[in-house]
UniProtKB/TrEMBL annotation:
Protein name in the entry: histidine kinase
Keywords per UniProt: ATP-binding, Cell membrane, Kinase, Membrane, Nucleotide-binding, Phosphoprotein, Transferase, Transmembrane, Transmembrane helix, Two-component regulatory system
GO cellular component: plasma membrane
Keyword RNA-binding: no
Organism this protein belongs to: Labilibaculum euxinus
Main localization (coarse): membrane
């Protein structure tokens, strides 16, 4: 009897141990696959603008260029350099967030002015088939917010850039409202959408939704990880609601460190 009980016990212990080993191997394999995909993606993200810079800098050396040609080549070199700088900044931001060395610098700022500025910067660089709308439900009063406006700007820039990048044609809407004493920001698009199994994973670094369209669009899978890191540092949450082929809406909150200033009678009359 004792031999039988020991045997059964041994069998279950061994089975548990084997399952643990198998799970650890699966995790290691997935992590390896992620690293390989990341290296491929980041190489591509670096090589494309580098090719632009090297190629067009070479062409600039030719003697018989018109003024328009020179301007066009310089424009491509500048845009490619910006792209390259963005990739490097993203890698640095991720490593800063990982090491816990991000410094949060909270100041008081006017929410309406802040949103108008974000909106106007993106409006000026829109593709032809995309429109951008600002839906600021708090517009009628001045909300003075106490937060890190630079980080907040980075988060919104990232979400709006993604919304534009993953929307071949349609509308992107930047929204702001208050919810349960918090500020709730949203960026909605009518783009390619995200399948439910990726709704949480995409906020982990290197993760990209594996559909054909994403592969052709390009990216290193760092932007949303940076957004989540920054939102958490500001004391909020970030999430997405999305339907494949219909569009996505990214939401994030920040704590309600704000005061509301009703406009004076003269200000109301002016506007
Ligand atoms: P990247 O865009 O460089 O791949 P991100 O971290 O910004 O990295 O996004 C991770 C993934 O989430 C993207 O690869 C894409 O699959 C998905 N994604 C992000 N934003 C959107 C969006 N607005 N519409 C559809 N998919 C999106």
């Amino acid at each position: 009897f004792y031999v039988l009980v020991t045997g059964i016990l041994f069998y279950f212990l061994l089975k548990k141990h084997l399952i643990k080993i198998r799970n650890a191997e699966k995790k290691a394999r997935e992590s390896d696959q992620l690293k390989t995909a990341f290296l491929q993606n980041i190489s591509h993200e670096i090589r494309t603008p580098m090719n632009g810079i090297v190629g067009f800098a070479g062409l600039l050396k030719e003697n018989d260029l018109t003024k328009d040609q020179k301007e066009m080549y310089l424009d491509i070199i500048t845009k490619s350099s910006d792209q390259l700088l963005n990739v490097v900044n993203d890698v640095l931001d991720v490593s800063l967030i990982d090491s816990g060395n991000v410094i949060i610098n909270k100041t008081q700022f006017n929410l309406n002015e802040f949103l108008e500025q974000i909106y106007s910067v993106h409006s000026t660089i829109l593709r032809k088939n995309i429109s951008l709308r600002l839906n600021n439900t708090l517009y009628s009063s001045d909300h003075i917010v106490f937060s890190d406006s630079v980080k907040l700007g980075q988060i919104l820039d990232n979400l709006i850039s993604n919304a534009i990048k993953y929307t071949p044609k349609g509308e992107v809407e930047l929204g702001c409202e208050t919810k349960e004493n918090k500020l709730l920001f949203s960026v909605k698009d009518s783009g390619i959408g995200i399948a439910p199994e990726y709704h949480e994973k995409i906020f982990d670094r290197f993760h990209r939704a594996e559909i054909e369209t994403t592969k052709t669009i390009g990216g290193a899978g760092l932007g949303l990880a940076i957004c989540r890191g920054n939102v958490n540092l500001l004391g909020g949450d970030i999430w997405v609601e999305s339907n494949l082929g219909i569009g996505s809406k990214f939401y994030f909150t920040i704590p309600g460190d704000f005061v509301v200033q009703k406009p004076t009678v003269e200000e109301k009359a002016d506007s």
